[in-house]
Amino acid sequence: MEDHRTSWDTATQTLLADGDSELECLCCRIDRWFFRREVRQRLRRYLRGLLAPAGRRNGWQMAEQIGEHDPSGVQRLVREAQWGADEVRDDLRAYVVEQMSTPEGILIPDETGFLKKGTHSVGVARQYSGTAGRAENSQVGVFLAYTSPKGTALIDRELYLPKEWTEDRGRCEGAGVPEGVEFATKPELARQMIERALDAGVPCAWVTGDEVYGNSTPLRSALERRRQPYVLAVASTTTVGVNLGEGPEFLTAVEITQRLPQAAWERIRVGEGAKGPRLYDWAWVPPPSPASPVSGEAGGKTPAWTHRLLLRRSLSDPVEYAFYFVFGPADVGLETVARVAGSRWAIEGALEGAKQEAGLDEYEVRRWEGWYRYVTLSMLASAFLSVVRSRLSEETTFPETVSPPSDPQKGGLSSDGSVGSLHKGRRGTASPHRSGDPASTSATALGEAPSSRSHAGVVPLASKTPSSRQAVPLPPTETTPPLTYLLL
User: Fold this and answer.
1) Which domains are assigned to the chain?
2) What is the torsional sign of CA 451, 343, 104, 148?
3) pLDDT tens for residues 403-455?
4) Global pTM?
5) Which tens digit of pLDDT belongs to each residue from 253-277?
6) Is 119 in contact with 138 (CB distance < 8 Å)?
């Protein structure tokens, strides 16, 4: 495989030259978090060094790149200088929103691995790494991307700590892990980042992600409580309640594909890939009973919200499927949610671009704070390139425009599920930081959506459930119609 460091090209150099004043404005924006003048000056050189064609972004080569005689200065910037990585992250997110947000914006969580040697780097363990496609000694970072018709950028990050780390407080203390940090799954880290973005007012029509995140009931429930629409991949073994014309019944996602007539499938292009348009057959399954309107904030009636199961079928291999849970207004169209599902690939390009162009995976830090500092600065440099590209070229990596859902409470636009114009992207290859098609499947509910205050993931089905499964009654709320069961 070609070394990703060779991706530096004339186009990137031109972007950096054309965006010199933009980079200075970005640095001025975050100067308030760097208290010493010397550190602020080095910050500017360091960001340009991250974007320069250095062989590796290690201390010595970075020092040489920015004109310093030894690596002590760049190491001090990342490891010891006084500045807050979270404060810079917040400014990075605000910068991306300012420059690239639209009402059609989509938030996408994903993880990527960083191969490491030894046992001292914070969070390192033998664990599955998409970078290698197998279990390797590595660190894993969970990232959040924002994508819109203007481009894609990483806006948040969390380091995943395996249990073998969080259960060894001495090891954590040695790596500088703050005392209050406990074990959190990757979906939980994604939830924290998504909620930070939503709390900060990031315009977000949808959330999408692969099955690592779609299989998480707590993540889906958290989004539903906020009335945040999502299209999340789930596993093929997911069992759901459906009504395909013979009354409510429980079927796995794969079994549903065998029962759908050919007329249920629709061919939809969801983006551009390395070999041309990403074209698939799509279908979806409605809830077992019609959804009902829920009260709006002003006491009026807004469109019903509902769950559906979305199915994707490969054209080249008709037995290759992917499955998604959809939560959102009942009047959103199939084409819209298919394109939301297809936009998940945007984070693949963003992560690989950050590695190729801003050295996201080339850090030489072992401690907690150093990891967050380096990764945040690399994300900042990468976001700068994305913003400059969005201004200078119509060939920027744009997802197809996806109409936001028609929920007046969320400031949505069209109610007909229509899709806007298509912007062709320059990069379409799947990133090597993951292996294979991430779309897949966990059982959740298909049925009428609860209100933003209610518990999520419910299925309004028949009065009896199979005896082999445990039925859990949904606690009633003032705003939720009497939904029946959630399958566990």
Assistant:
1) 1-82 (no CATH), 83-487 (3.90.350.10)
2) positive
3) 666 544 443 323 333 223 223 333 333 344 544 444 433 333 333 333 333 33
4) 0.79
5) 999 999 999 999 999 999 887 778 8
6) no
